[in-house]
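Troubleshooting: if your tokenizer reports a length mismatch, compare against these two reference records.
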Amino acid sequence: MKGAVLFSTSNTASLNIMRHLESDWKWKKKSGEYYSFSACGKESCCTGLEAFGSPASIIEILPPSAEQVAALRAARSPPACAHAKLAAERTIFDYFLYASTHKSEVGTPALTAHVPGNWGAADFGGSERTLNMAYASKLKQILQLLDEGAKKHKLDWPINMEVDHHGPTPNNGKHALIFVEIGSGQEQWENEIAGKVVAEAMMKALVRPAPQVKVYLGIGGGHYAPKFTPLMLGSEGRAVGHVLAKYRAADFDEQMLKQAVEKTIEPIEGALIDWKGLGKEEREQIISVLEKKGLKWERI
């Protein structure tokens, strides 16, 4: 599956990450809003990678249209490798990685990743009650690469998976989107080691196949998914894509379950419930919906 990077020219962490893709991984800055990487070392390559930028807020940036991609590619040098003309005409990406800041009131340093989208109200962009496509195995891979890179570069920051939250939700959530973030304040957004770690994780995730894992819906717990982060970082062959936090439990119903199942790239095996991360009444209501729709569940 082919991925691309999205970034904001007004986002400090975005620019930090893009600088490291350029300096550490030899991406070429074609303009302020377009970078490319040539795997074969030639100017225009059929196996290359691309990043698309915008001055908009990171949570408002939409995947580029086919016309936008074609125009940016046309500005490059003529195709220089076999089948490059055909590749230049392909404007479809399977998923997008957002190079982003993470914000929190506490300001604790952290590297985070998650699927954007709204189980309920659209408090921070996107459409209400609209999820995006989740690519759970790729999200697991990215979190593991962030953990691996932080250890390698001696960045003693926690690695956290977050629950689904904020926008965008373009095209009614039909795109697979993953936010990869540096948190949680200005000092961290500018941290060069953090930028290096995230750029390295994104680069490796873009060129490596996602791991073969069983995929589940995650339900319960707080914003930083305390039960699901260890599962994603661990070697166990399971992953979660969409995660419903306790504070959104009241928004869970048959329609949202249907979305979560249909908007996951991989087949859903069932639901994993953070048992202590929900109240008794919340558990009962959620389990009744799962069982009515015939989805298996287990407590963790």
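Reference record two:
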Amino acid sequence: MFVKVTTSGPRRYVQLVESYRDEVGRVKKRTVATLGRLDQLSGELDAVIDGLLKVSGRAPVGAKTATPCAVSASCLSFESARALGNVWALTELWKELGFSDLRRVFRRTRHTIDVEALIRIMVLNRLCDPDSKLGVLRWLQTVALPDIEVKALTHQQLLRSMDALMDNQDAVDGVISGLLRPLVDQDLSMAFYDMTTIRAEGLSTMEGDVRKFGMAKEGLIARQFMLGVVQTADGLPIYHEVFDGNTAETKTLLPILKKVMERFPNLRRLILVADRGLLSLDNLQALQAIRLSCAKGQDPSKAQALEFIIAVPGRRYNEFADLLGEFQMKCNQASSEITGEVAWNDLRLVLAHDPATALEQQLKRKTKMAELQAQANGWAGKLDDQDMGQKKKGRKLSDSGAKARFYHAVCEAHLGKIVKVDMKAELFSYAIDEAALKLAELMDGKLLVVTNVQDMAPEKVIERYNRIWHPKKSLNATNHWPTLSAASRS
């Protein structure tokens, strides 16, 4: 049975037709019912159609929605889905590691906001999509944080949570220390300490401001603060502290070490590894006097001494040049990295030399030497031509101007200890300090480390230092001292 449209004159009719076979098997059609004129049909057939649909178990016509193909593209809109996977995993990790215990610290404070939840939000943002405090609020609109109602959060609440964190720093440190203690090896702990400078912009000041003008890592005077971090050999940070931007690095080592030992009083052995900027005679004497905490019933006089591995800064290599005689003879014949040691102030001075690094430093020195020599010769030639009355393009050059410009070029190339620009002379001139040049060549490719660890071979000490401090640079501890051939204008 089917619907058929038939024509009679100018009119068209809708008919319900069925097919059948006659007595001899031929297919024929007959009209079961005429439903009306096609041009006059509107909703008269809806009841019939709904009845048929109901009998067949389908939804009536009125209950159906428009099919996708009948919807205009201009009516469609797409909404972005909120991210869940990363924040859910980090939230579960936060709870599993025990950081939810911070809630007990802030529950005893005057704050009515959920400080632990706000701190957690900012930590998750730092891990997923680092941004400012205002940026955190924007980020919250793109994620589905579990267990937190984010609609009512404000910028001021985030700022107040940071204030609460600072006001309760000691209590927070106590909780974090308790979480970290099971992760630190009590029998042998390698801890290393380093500092870095973090640039700060703006000119506003406030009481207790740590933003001070000091020497930045780039060798410039800048407004900054300093960050000291202690971590284990596995890369686990166990303590950090912020210092004023003009703090000397050597003065931070002992206070930081004292706090680390208070955090982990059960350490039976501690080997401190520190970078070059932290070496001073006062520090060495104080480090040798430190003893770890005693076990119950142990004689305090037999407590384990603190052990350390500290690199010598390149600017102090000249103090050890007289100790390198026998080791330098081996260096001259070496084709691969070698190590050795000598005694110094009742300590071990462990030495390492890498011929490949030495060759690389020599090539860099020669390159800078050629560049500065060409620059100096150009200025000297221009001054000579001016004295002879010849005119050249550009501004007129003076001897004092040439000296100032060349001095700055020498400083930028780290040549101050080798190239001596005579700033008091009437004419532009400079000279090479041959002793400093010879010392720079002597120290090419060398690493010097001071230690009191007695049960490590020299190569093991160097491996410990390089693995922790310079995993990508190996032996590259000498200062950057390029050289320049002598030339002067008389």
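Descriptive notes for reference record two:
- The chain has a mean pLDDT of 82.
- The longest helix spans residues 355-387.
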